[in-house]
Structure formats: structure tokens, C-alpha cells
Amino acid sequence: MNPLAVTVTLRRCARHFHHHQALQPLDLTVHPGETLVLLGPSGCGKTTTLRIISGLESCDAGGEVWFDDRNVTALPIEKRNVGMVFQNYALFPNLNVAENVAYGLKVQGVARAEREARVQEMLELVDLSALAQRSIDKLSGGQKQRVALARALAARPKVLLFDEPLAALDARLRDRLRLEIGALLKKLAITAVYVTHDQQEAMALGDRIAVMERGRLVQIDTPQNIYQQPASKFVADFVGAINCVDVDARGNPLRFCRPEDVLLASDNRYRRQGFILASTFLGASQRLMIDIGLATPIQVDRHAREAWHAGQPVSWMLAQDAALQFA
Ligand SMILES: Nc1ncnc2c1ncn2[C@@H]1O[C@H](COP(=O)(O)OP(=O)(O)OP(=O)(O)O)[C@@H](O)[C@H]1O
């Protein structure tokens, strides 16, 4: 545990723009050293929450932001000592890699020798030492984002804030940088808040995930609990695929399950019957669409090497404890 890591607390933080309530009154605690991911669809209030923590945005009267036992509500961003990493990098194109990382330290008045040592340390941390003198426009998207991360960390922020930092990168680079950021956050044990609408990113990086819907926090828990015990159908849907497997007499959905939680057989071993409508090869797995006699077919994930084919009759049942129900 990092003894310097702070607790971030939001108390009744709301925000409206004109007549639109972007954020309902929000109470939220980010524990010292934890990475909290804010996850939700576009417009649900993630960025507004992040900006309120940073000081780029103020909350409506009555809301408060605390870093440990310090009320920072009235402090502007430059007095809060937060590091920010954005989707669009926000680097200075006319400065090279090292100069970009050093910029904030220069503004803070950190002496030259100390500045150079810290820049070197940060570039090592993000594995960019070899490119210290390179100009920003000669870097790949992933390298630019590592510079942005080094710059954010160089000032030794109390809190690190990420706003969709991987959104502009292609899928492979995104996966790699996600792993790197995850490893770095673990190593530094700095308090971090990370905004994304990508559920895989949220699962991989979050110690906890706060799911937001239309300006409200709807569930906050570990990735495992969010996935396995979602508080609502909205949460269940947002963090993965979901099937309705039982309806009531009026056709209203009663029970749901994840695609990986269906046991499937080509004989009549299981009580319930269905037949395969289609199969999609996904590399490691295949996703089967199975007609089980309800309005919507269910999706079932199986290992890619198993031989299933469209038109095949099957029997099936839910794995133990796999059924999800919502009030
Ligand atoms: N400066 C502003 N002026 C007016 N409305 C705003 C402003 N900033 C945000 N909003 C509105 O507040 C709501 C929440 O926006 P916010 O950017 O927090 O959502 P988000 O979850 O981060 O979405 P996205 O993933 O698209 O960035 C949206 O309806 C947005 O249009």
C-alpha cells in the first residue's frame, strides 16, 4: 500500500447545465490506492463526475469534494494536484517527449536537476527513455499516450484521472496499453479514477466499477460482482451479453443468464429443448444462437473446437447458480 495515496470523497455532488440535470446528487468514495472505473453509456455523466473531481467543473451548490480530510471543493484544478490523461493526449506538438514530460514541473518551479531526474524516471516507467528527444508528431498513438501518462505522473499527483485514454487507439494497441496502464497503476498504488464506456477495459482495470445510468450511480462493486450479480438488467446488459431464458404467463421476462452459463448437449440429457439457428466463429470460442421457443433466441458461448452446427437440435439447462433475476 502506498502511504501517500489519498481518499477521494464526493458528497452530494450534482451538476445541471441549463435545465438538464447531467448528474444527480452523487455520494462516492474512492479508496486510497484504488482504481475506480466510471462505466456507462454516452451522456450518463462520467466525464462530468471526473471533471468535478479534477476541479475543471464545479458541482452545484451544496456538493463537496474531499481529498482525505481536506475540502477541495473551492480549489481550482491547479491547486488540487491531480494528473489527467485524456483521449486526445493534449500534448504540446512543438516540444519533444522529454520537454512535454518536464513541462508541468517547470511551471511548478521544480529545479532543473530534480526536473531532469524525474523526467528520466518517468520515461523509464513508461518505457520511453530511448525516445526522449523525439518530437511528438513522430510518435505512434500508443507512444503519445505513454508520454501523456508520464507527464501526468511527473508532478507526483495525489489523484490520477483518466478520460477514455484508449478510445482513439486501434484494438491491438488498446489491449497492450490497457495491460501496461493496469500494471503501472498496481505498481504505483495511486488513487485513480478512470472513465470508459468499454466494459472490457473496466473489468480489466477497475478494482471497483461504478456503473452510471442517466446521471445516476446505479451500482458500485468489484468487476466480478458487477458481472455475476448485476443489480439491474441495465447493468447486466451493459457489462456483457445476457439471455432471457424464462418468461411469465404474459411473456414478461423472469430469468436471465450469461451466454457462457448454458450447459448444452447434442442428445436429450437435459430437460429443455432447442435448436441451433446459427453459429459465429470467434477464434477461441463460437457463439451459438439457439431457438428455445421464446420470442428471442438465446446466445450460448462454446469452445471453438466443439462441433455444433446450424439446424442441430440440442437439449440444455442453466449451470448451477447461473440464473439472474431482477426486481
Ligand atoms: N458544458 C456542458 N454544457 C451543457 N451540457 C453538458 C455540458 N457538459 C456535459 N453536458 C451534458 O451532460 C450530460 C452528461 O455528460 P458527460 O460528458 O458527463 O457524459 P459522459 O457519460 O462522459 O458521456 P461521453 O461518454 O459521451 O463522454 C450529457 O447529456 C451532456 O450533453
TrEMBL record:
Pfam family, one: ABC_tran
GO terms for cellular component: ATP-binding cassette (ABC) transporter complex
Keywords: ATP-binding, Nucleotide-binding, Transport
SMART domains: AAA
Protein name from the UniProt record: Putative spermidine/putrescine transport system ATP-binding protein
SUPFAM superfamilies for this protein: MOP-like, P-loop containing nucleoside triphosphate hydrolases
Organism: Candidatus Pantoea floridensis
Family annotation (InterPro entries): AAA+_ATPase, ABC_SmlMolc_Importer, ABC_transporter-like_ATP-bd, ABC_transporter-like_CS, Mo/tungstate-bd_C_term_dom, P-loop_NTPase
Molecular function per GO: ABC-type transporter activity; ATP binding; ATP hydrolysis activity
Domain ABC transporter, residue spans: 8-239
Family under the similarity heading: Belongs to the ABC transporter superfamily. Drug exporter-2 (TC 3.A.1.117) family.
